[in-house]
Design brief:
Structural class: mainly alpha
Largest sheet: none
Radius of gyration: 23 Å
Number of strands: 0
Number of domains: 1
CATH architecture: Orthogonal Bundle
Order of helices and strands: HHHHHHHHHHHHH
Number of helices: 13
Shape: globular
Amino acid sequence: MRKLRIFLGYLTLILIAISMLYPFFAMINLSFVDNNEIFSHAGRIFHPNLTLNNYKNVFTEIPMGLYFFNSLLVATITTIGQVIFASLAGYAFARLNFKYKNALFLIIIITMLIPPQVNIIPLFFLMRELHLIDTYQALILPALFGGFGIFLMRQYFLGLPKDLEEAAKIDGCNLFQTFFKIALPLALPTVATLAIFTFVTTWNSFMWPLIVTNSESMRTLPVGLAIYKGSFRELTLWGNLLACSVICTIPVIGVFLLGKKYFISDILQGSVKE
């Protein structure tokens, strides 16, 4: 009976994995199929006539390389900045005692309850007053500081044994040395989780880049691809769009694979109680 339950459990997991992976595999597979043959061969797992024309069309019809660079630059800088500021602020809220600390942290928590769409108009007017519209600064600055990252890092540092930091202080480490040499290295799983979350969120961001960018040279991938899709009037070239989708997923998968070890470690660490 126990073996039957184990078998049914694994079978269920396999079916769930197939249902989740098949659309992704179909996207990659159909991106190499000619536009005229996509719907007639949509049910096939493997196609006899594969072509790179869809990818060639994408890079010749739109500045895909520029869109990709803009998205990668914005997502990378935002991720690095978010990790740095959230780690420092989280450590300060967890370990330092200063006036109005709890009140400030409560304000940060409240900002997490506000829908991002509510902040779009005030942020737009702020960027306009600072003359940052249609610049990289407008794409990066609003996303550098977030309540979720501060909350996540603070919760981790609160669970970190103080004995390690006290031992570092006895050895002559100051506050910054204790943070960078003791606390931050131990927080790498949480840092990786925050980095993956921030990168994916920034990479997929559509509304804010659409509002603050005017020129084609500043467009990110989601905005550029939406405009490209809107340029199809009579016939939608699904092969080209699938090729664009494959290109868009490459950095996200790469970032997850790089941080997978720490990301899974953080999940397992949070699921085990002493």
